[in-house]
Amino acid sequence: MTLRQAQGEPTPHIPVLLGEVIAALDPQPGDVVVDATFGAGGYARAILDAGATVHAFDRDPDAIAAGSAWPEAGEDPARLVLHHRRFSEMVAALAAAGIARVDGVTMDIGVSSMQLDQAGRGFAFSAEGPLDMRMSQAGESAADFLNGAREEEIADVLYRFGEERQSRRVARAIVAARPLATTGDLARVVRKALGYRAGAPKDPATRTFQAVRIHVNAELDELEAGLAAAEALLREGGRLAVVSFHSLEDRIVKRFLREAAGAHGGPSRHLPEAKGGPPPTFARVSRAIRPSDAEIGRNPRARSATLRAAVRTAAPARKRQEQAA
């Protein structure tokens, strides 16, 4: 922990795997690139500096408000076009702007540093704040869900999205302690239920906070829809770069790219892969790219990051293939 964190000050935004993401996207002057998760704009800044135009999406009004002050947003024509929308809506949003194809799409999945560092947003238990967790600052909050849902529903969310093995015990404790109003309320309930001891290597509340946040924001559904949207938008030779931060997200990205690349497992590893099926929509799928020790030293939040990248082929998007079939 840095002195700034200990004093409760926000840490400066450091985009994760920035060099690797930009290398995967290879933005050129005149390109149109979608930054599907604008946040504090770390990737967008580097893409703009390469001479490309960026269409940036974020459901958080604070991120959009901050981006509107960038000089590129005021150019005529604007090189930074901000969309206060979910990235799953990028096809419709770009169609409204007269754009059918783009040269690149990047996504940085999950909660942003600027959201984590604001106690009033309720994403973290490092500082007391309202039990909120809404990226859009609208709709059902974490408190609404935890104070109103059935015990079985809470346990299911904790198990599915937090991989919490003691999900039933934690859910039972949450229901018994209702109403919960703050991040501290929730953290204390989880710690007590799981017998947490100060100084343990990982706070057991981490899994519950992750699970509730994913549920409140429908993050995994949004990721799947966003990947399909990127497939529909990217031109032949266009590039996709996705950074995820935990195994649930990475499994979705890995499976999507594997299937999009036409990987069909053969009956044996000694036999060739089965033929048939729709033509691949992505090629040159990268292996998992992870941050160096040096980057983790500079930015500990990079520790769990994984980048996967691929290049779009000429094949029609698979949804259109299925409709044609």
Q: What amount of the residues lies in strands?
A: 5-15%
In the CATH scheme, the class of the largest domain would be Alpha Beta
What letter string, H or E per element, gives the SSE order? HHEHEHEHEHHHHHHHEHEHEH
State Rg.
21 Å
Care to describe what's here?
This protein has a seven-stranded mixed sheet with strand order 3-2-1-4-5-7-6, with helices on both faces. Residues 1-11 and 265-274 have low confidence and may be disordered. It has helices at 3-6, 18-25, 42-49, 61-67, 90-96, 113-116, 142-148, 151-162, 167-177, 183-194, 205-217, 219-233, 247-260, 293-298, 318-324, and strands at 32-35, 53-57, 80-83, 102-108, 234-244, 282-283, 306-312. Helices cover 42% and strands 12% of the residues. The protein folds into two domains: 3-113 and 219-324, Rossmann fold, CATH 3.40.50.150; 118-216, DNA polymerase, domain 1. With 325 residues, it is α/β, with parallel strands linked by helices.
Can you describe this structure in just a few lines?
The chain is α/β, with parallel strands linked by helices.
Keywords:
42% helix; alpha/beta; 325 residues; DNA polymerase, domain 1; globular; Rossmann fold
Walk me through the topology:
Elements: H1 3-6, H2 18-25, E1 32-35, H3 42-49, E2 53-57, H4 61-67, E3 80-83, H5 90-96, E4 102-108, H6 113-116, H7 142-148, H8 151-162, H9 167-177, H10 183-194, H11 205-217, H12 219-233, E5 234-244, H13 247-260, E6 282-283, H14 293-298, E7 306-312, H15 318-324
Parallel strand pairs: 1-2, 1-4, 2-3, 4-5
Antiparallel strand pairs: 5-7, 6-7
